[in-house]
Amino acid sequence: MPWAEARSDAQSSSPGNPTTNQVTPAPLRLVKNAAASGIASNRDKVLGAVQAGARTAKEVADATGLNKGTVSREIKALTASGALQRTADGRILPGQQAA
What CA–CA distances, in Å, run from 62 to 9, 17, 33, 91, 99? Predict the structure, then answer.
């Protein structure tokens, strides 16, 4: 393995050699936990808008500032999960799980 050989060479070099200085990477953070830190996800924004009274995708898009394609995708996912439901005339209502 060339990488392992290069690493062992770097470790055996003298401490004053500038090629052995290693930069410590910044710690990683999980993006999935963004909602837990107070940042609302698009899905949360759509659900909140419907709970606040938005009944059409256009009303949800206007209330959230999200693109209509994003709103449509999130409504579809929330409907599939039961958090939202659609009426026969296409209006969006909070589902049983959202109540």
Answer: 59, 59, 26, 15, 23
Please give the DSSP secondary-structure letter assigned to residue 90.
S
Residue pair 50/93 in contact by the 8 Å Cβ criterion: yes
Which residue shows structure tokens 């401490």? 15
Measured between alpha carbons, how far is 24 from 18 in angstroms, rounded to an integer?
A: 15
Strand (E) or helix (H) holding 96: none
Q: Are 92 and 84 in contact (CB under 8 A)?
A: yes
**If residue 85 lies in a helix (H) or strand (E), which one and from where to where?**
strand 84-86
pTM: 0.60
List per-residue pLDDT tens for the chain, 99 residues long: 455 555 544 455 555 555 666 788 888 776 665 555 567 899 999 999 999 999 999 999 999 999 999 999 999 999 999 999 999 999 999 987 544
